[in-house]
Amino acid sequence: MRLLSPFQLICVILGALFVSSDSIASNEVWALTAFKEAIYDDPNLVLSNWDALDADPCSWAGISCSPGRDRILALNLSSSSLKGFLAPELGLLSSLEKLILRKNNFLGTIPKEIGIMKSLKVLDLGFNQLSGPIPPEIGGLSSATKIHLQSNGLTGSVPVEFGNLGNLVELRLDRNKLQGTIPGNSNFQSVLNGMNVSDSNANGFCRTSQLKRADFSFNFFVGGTPSCLKFLRRSSFQGNCFQDKNSKQRSTQQCGGTSHANSLPVANPEHRHFGNVSKHLHASNKPGWLLSLEIVIGIAAGFLLLFAILTAVKRCKNQSRVVIPWKKAASMKDQKIIYIDSDLLMDVVRWSRQELEVACEDFSNIIGSSTDSLVYKGIVKDGPEIAVISLCVKEENWIGHLELSFQREVADLARLNHENIEKLLGYCRESSPFSRMLVFGYASNGTLSEHLHYGEGCHLSWIRRIKIIIGIARGLRYLHTEIQPPFTVSELNSSAVYLTEDFSPKLVDFENWKTVLARSKKTTGPSGNISCKFSDSVQARQLDIQGNTFSFGVLLLEIISGRPPYCKDRGYLVDWAKEYLTQPEAISYVADPELRHFRYDDLKVLCEVVNLCIHPEPSTRPSMHAVCNMLESRINTTITSEMKDSPLAWAELAISS
Prior knowledge:
By secondary structure, this protein is an alpha/beta fold. It is 32% helix and 15% strand.
């Protein structure tokens, strides 16, 4: 998370000193502007009246001010469908009492700068897509009475600093991925065998005396429930990894087999704790001069450590940048830095540009191109053939949410594993020269489009075409129904199907770049305001499953007819074929004239599937699971069945082999 630079802090202090008492401090207006800039999608135009040139933000949507309009008291944008990041500048809203951003789509981590908002009473960031650990600095919200962080993707442990929240009444941490123990003196009394424990010895939630309601359910907490939280309902702790027979907990498999080990007591815990107490008592008997010497040495060591950290940070800044520029400008205020979580691609192989340059013969072996990307073929030494997709975009146009979109696309593709889906082998991300590339396996027999339309259709016998169709259907069934969340091919056509040496189909989503770049395009709303349209890849693909089904119907028709989806003479293939598809006596006209042989019964089934897939009402189109069942149960793909039906199939088989 980015810290404010010394220059920014000076600007903030000077702004606070010179601002008039009857207007909002300029640094707070700047903080709100930075918050808006970190939002890349505002589909409902909620922020349309947030004008950075307006020195009085009290009339902005979601903003509530004091009666004198000199302090911002609340920022409430709940259920606004906003997508973006939480800007660290929120910490500059020193008078803010309520920060309510629940039920949006905020990404990234919680800025630790929120912890300096001493006036904040309500922090509600629930029901978003936040990730990473909870900043310990949140424990500095001394005025906080309600903190809601539920239904996100937060990880790590609960900071023990939450024990500093003396006014906290309500806490929601449920439905995250939090681990470790719930901080508190869960076994302190039993360990000390009845010794009195003062408030100063309490830790974690055992220090939050005002806490009345809390929910820790559906995380991965281990250990036991702190004794000071026994007043909470049992349901507040269910769905974790506690060894508690009285509440519903996760299975050992879901807990990674570690819950039991983590909950076991260590050998002789009394000895360990009494040893710590004894050491503490012994340390208190040290002479004064020795304690003073230790303090001086500690301070000196602290300065040395701070110097080392600052030096390391400076060196890191001089090397390759980890941050992604949100917007490039000469002015400090016009620049926004977005931090991307590198854990997203932790399990995906990262290739260097030099490796790919060598494999692709200095990027001279181009096998495909579009306005958005170039596709290269390469051969890795002692490895497989690869296809490398390079995005055609300039660095100055590569803003922060595009980087996030790129990384999410990589992570989305990396999870695919099916025999009819081309495997993503890795990615390349470098800043000098600017490079964003995807590395796939390469199917050596070219695309299905090349075989159908460029003089090699005779190589695709009826048997091969049937097997290709069923292979594509199985791949789509896997993408649509066998993985969660579902995945769709952005442009499903014969050019997206590559063939191996034995003509097995491999679906490749080379056109996914278009969905990435489309998110950078801005559109003008009804009121003339500019909003950035950034559709989440996963959400968009869930909505486009029916579109994939239609495309499969068109592709199936293209395979059996050998005709392109569109040509000037006949127009659209679907329109041309409609007059034959519904007439059993005429469906033979749909078959490719290049075919020496085909089975009428198979063709009848295929035309039936085409009719279902291209139905004008999307909701009535079948799922790919149903389509697969139809094809697999009603079409016999064995060679013997072909031999029985036609002597010509023997010759066709010989040619095919």
